[in-house]
Write a structure and sequence with these properties.
alpha+beta, two-stranded antiparallel ribbon
């Protein structure tokens, strides 16, 4: 999860314009991760992204290089509470799911919201 360095900048969350601008602005990050870091397993959805590698040491190094790139080049910083280096068997939160290596689960919060919305229809 990314956040702007200055609290006075930004676009309303959920706006389709914010999704468009995230894709345009973070295109440089995509290029950096794929071509400079040569990461084969990289996924980004709006401002959330995941990088996978077999080596913890390589991921830790990539994390530092991405953090520096974002700050220097795009004036963005990684959210300190939402940035995690995990093993794949621990699962990760991404786009409303808890994603594991071979499967994913809908997060409890989203499941409750879905059930609540179905009951009102």
């Amino acid at each position: 999860m990314l956040s702007f360095c200055s609290g006075s900048k930004g676009i309303a969350v959920g706006s389709s314009v914010s999704q468009l601008f995230a894709n345009i602005y973070l295109n440089e990050l995509d290029y950096f991760v794929k071509h400079n870091l040569r990461k084969k397993f990289y996924l980004r959805y709006c401002d959330d992204f995941v990088v996978l590698d077999r080596s913890y040491k390589k991921i830790a190094n990539s994390h530092k290089r991405i953090k520096d790139f974002l700050l220097e080049r795009l004036k963005l910083q990684l959210h300190p509470q939402k940035t995690k280096l995990l093993r794949t068997n621990q699962g990760m939160d991404l786009a409303g799911f808890k994603t594991f290596y071979f499967y994913r689960l809908v997060k409890k919060k989203n499941h409750k919201l879905f059930r609540l919305n179905c009951e009102t229809v």
